[in-house]
Task: inverse folding
């Protein structure tokens, strides 16, 4: 095997690995919490319908409506906005945060307006789809305070360890199965030869 073929084989394996890992990693990246240091703006409320469209006097809403808190934040020392929604997750198991304190977080945001805070959230901000991350907590902080993702690190370490353990078990099981299958193949081969000798005509082949 030359170097070009080896590189091509590695590229194919890497591509398959990326395709297999992309969906679960994106899922985990969306739901696992992370923290940033921000400057807090004045919170506000929007009335949304079931399709997350803003409801106004000239708009026809789609079914029941709900009031959703939003908190505008900014990178410290800049005007770049990062808007998050502040909505309870309730008893939903996905994500399993059991958040019921959106009103309290909104009150904290009002108190911290114009100040620096640590924002803990999950989700993505996708502007053209009007998707906002959901805030999990907000507390006073200073620029330079740690935002190390302990939850993501611990969960990722446990997940990788679990996957490695499963791979180790499967490798051992597959290795034992290969030995068993090789033994069965050898046994069936001997049985086949024995039957062929028994069924062979005494006078040889015509």
Result:
């Amino acid at each position: 095997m030359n170097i070009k073929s080896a590189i091509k084989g590695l590229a194919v394996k890497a591509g398959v690995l990326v395709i297999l890992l992309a969906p679960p990693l994106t899922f985990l990246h969306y739901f696992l919490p992370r923290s940033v240091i921000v400057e807090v703006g004045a919170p506000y409320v929007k009335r949304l319908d079931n399709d997350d469209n803003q409801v106004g006097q000239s708009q026809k809403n789609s079914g029941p409506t709900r009031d959703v808190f939003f908190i505008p934040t900014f990178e410290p020392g800049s005007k770049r906005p990062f808007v998050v929604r502040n909505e309870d997750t309730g008893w939903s198991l996905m994500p399993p945060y059991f958040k019921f304190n959106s009103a309290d977080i909104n009150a904290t945001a009002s108190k911290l307006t114009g100040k620096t805070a640590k924002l803990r959230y999950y989700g993505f901000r996708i502007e053209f789809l009007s998707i906002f991350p959901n805030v999990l907590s907000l507390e006073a902080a200073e620029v330079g305070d740690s935002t190390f993702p302990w939850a993501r690190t611990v969960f990722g370490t446990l997940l990788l360890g679990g996957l490695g353990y499963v791979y180790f078990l499967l490798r051992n099981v597959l290795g034992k199965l290969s030995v068993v299958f090789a033994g069965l193949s050898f046994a069936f081969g001997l049985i086949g030869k024995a039957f062929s000798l028994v069924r062979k005509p005494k006078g040889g082949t015509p």
